[in-house]
Specification:
The chain is an all-beta fold. 0% of the residues lie in helices and 45% in strands. It has no helices and 11 strands. The two termini are 20 Å apart.
Length: 116
């Protein structure tokens, strides 16, 4: 998977997903964009978006326990960094996608790579 947070925002298409006030600190929002399940977290006032899929078994990840910036898969305990999508603990060894997030005019937007 790829950490899209590192690509130039000009190379992204930003998709609005909801109002900034819809995700209080410590909470999450589940969305699907073009068939891609994504979960958005607000931690310490900052927004993070990752693929809502565990790379270990392709099951949903977003309902797992969040500790700091780490989410644990609710089925087998694999852990991922929500800032980068990096796999941190077995049984996952493959990173998951992480997406840039911004707030524009009170709307949360997730950046997906532009198809040129």
């Amino acid at each position: 998977m790829y950490n899209y947070r590192n690509i130039d925002p000009a190379r992204c298409e930003f998709v609005p997903i909801g109002a900034d006030v819809e995700i209080p600190d410590g909470k999450r929002m589940f969305v699907e964009i073009d068939g891609i399940p994504i979960v958005v977290f607000r931690v310490g006032g900052e927004l993070f978006a990752i693929a809502d899929i565990c790379s270990h078994d392709d099951g949903p990840l977003g309902d797992g326990d969040l500790e700091g910036f780490e989410i644990a898969c609710p089925r087998h305990g694999a852990r991922f960094d929500i800032r980068t999508g990096k796999a941190l603990a077995l049984p996952a060894v493959v990173d998951i996608s992480a997406y840039p997030v911004r707030v524009t005019d009170g709307q949360i937007e997730i950046g997906l790579p532009s198809v040129d």
